[in-house]
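G., before I forget:
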Amino acid sequence: MSIEFIWQLPTSGDGRYGNAEKQRRGERSSSAHPYSPGVTDPRGQSFNYFDHLHQVARAADLAGFDGLRIPEDPSGDEPWIVAGYVARGTRHLKLLTEFEASRGSSVYAAKNAVSYQRFTGGRFAWQIKAGASEKQRRAQGDFVADGDRHARIEEFLFVARGVLTQSPYSFKGRFFEVQDGGFQGALGNQKVPPVYLSGNSPEDYRLSAKVADVHVFDAANAATIEREVALVRDLAKKEGRRLSFGLRLDVLARETEEEAVFDAERYWQQPGGRQAGGAPTVDQRLWAGLTKDNTGAAATLVGSYEQVEQALIAYYAAGIDSFLLSAVPHFEEAFRLGEHVLPFVRSQVSLEQRRALGGLS
Amino acid sequence: MTIDIFWRIPTHGEPSSHRSRTPFRGDWSPGDDSKRKPGLAGSGGDGFSYIDYLAEIAHAAEISGFQGGLIPSFPMTDEPWVISSVLARETKTFRFMIPFQPGFLNPVVAARMTASLQRATGGRALYNIITGGGGPQQLWWGDAVAHDDRYGRTTEFLDILRGVWNGGPFSYHGKFYRVEGAGLADPLAREEYPEIYFSGSSDAALASASKHADYYLSWLEPFEQLRRKFDRVKERTQELGRRIKTAIRVDIVARPTEEEAWEEIRRGFDSLEKSVVENFQRSADGSESVGAARQRSHRPTTINSYKDLIIEPNVWSGFNLLRGGQTNGIVGSYEQVAERLDQLVQLGADAFILASTPHLEEAYRVGEEVLPLVRGSASAAGLRAAG
């Protein structure tokens, strides 16, 4: 499989250069005049954060990313609506939409997925997350016990695949039910959304081994990733399956290492950059916790373009095919990475693949 | 109060006329490109999909003066949440009327989806809450709650939607749904709550509508019967302290002259297979829907010509022979159709959802020829003054 780069759409707010504080760019939070009284403002209330999200999505498409991850964050905008909103403005991006299996009927999710596939030429993909603690999930109307979350995801996917690929299809399980279901005619034979699952627990691994197309790891050093990839790969083998692997990683890349480190430290020292978990710890250019509160990534890769490229290539060697990246601010950084980092990694990986096939000596 | 007039988005495919049974327009069925472009040899792949055609209709409706459109949801159709979010950015005034059944979504998720859609569209989302016709089809959707229970569930669903809307924390312990400390986050919590059109003719439905609906939505029925129904709805909801408005979903065929309009119906009817008409005569569709039963009750026992289905002036009760959906529709000259709509306003209608095939050209026709003739609430005011 070739590698893919997936950029993140910041559904609950984005920062700016030199200002780590999360905000909804483009959105007016008050009706107060934003400039000094001597300067006119032509915008009025005609723009909001959705216009910025559209910009970020277009940026990722133009800069050569393969996909867009639309994360589920209860404090942000709802990912399925955002996916639809950016669908028409993008041409190539896979729309990796994150949600929890508590969102409703699995059949209804599958039916909505059919329309996304029809309208985007099959670019819709699913990332399903297990969700937060019981107490937090109750605020989302979800009362399933923590221990049942994985079983519910498995059943959700089983039923969704059932109605997407067979008709009539019937199933009655613990969480979902359907009788003589399935999509026919104009809605028939649409692509099942590729399924990305994540997490670092044994239950997460077992579930991925059974049902995921891609298992996404949180950022960790390459040696750890290589070990975990082997673990999940073995579990999948026992299920008679193969899957590929992704890495959720933030990137802070600059022309020189000094600039990158300077920006990482400045980020950390700003009000919005101070993380709940304390000061970041650095391991092989991985700054753990630097941007976690903002983007959700466990660690940020900090370095020069060349250093970042080498690190990504090392992850590829460790078994990673899908890079789920983000950086603050998401709009500007999409172009930076698309221009300065992705091309070399792609060409290097493609060279190695040809070498592995014996095409090059 | 003025009258809101909506159009419909043909999610169930679009034939080119009332005479055609083949909904091949705009790639409704993927791979049908070969019918328009033989050179493509059925490979599809011209980069267009049905959403491109639906976008044209949404634009036609907003240009032609409609509020927006109903986006019907059935097992064979695309989904209104998807259509609305995909078309959010490229429409200006079009309001997306989303039908959905409360059992299909977690209410807190539905609230977030709606608030985000309001943000994406500048407040152009509204609901048509459907509680489901029951029978086998309900299980197709994966939903197994019995008929009267479903309205209880709808009420609970809307209780929660309302409860979390402006922020919460909101807790609720119902028979079907529970939440603890729920609420939309800012800035989603600042959006306007969507208008709710409510469908369902049973007593259980009316009880639920009284609590949460802004509009009670009915198919077209014989005018006197509809007057009584609207009176009952308004009376009943008034008793509960909340008088709600009423709306009518109706197909129309409007032409420069009445003869041309009936000729369109005649040709549509005459193009039907005999067995279709026979089935129609006998039809018992197994649905638990009271609305469907109310429409069937006006059917004559023998049907030899389209004329047998004219149940009152300019009202034809064979529309679902020509395409899926409701039975009764209005047929006539531009002036007659406008007059009938005004009569419906006089007997209590506050809003309309109109439709005609093909939806694209007919949106322009109705917008240009019929809407300017409708007097709307002015006609009802004149009536009251005179009476």
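The longest helix of chain B spans residues 147-165. The two ends of chain B are 19 Å apart (CA to CA).

More on Monday.
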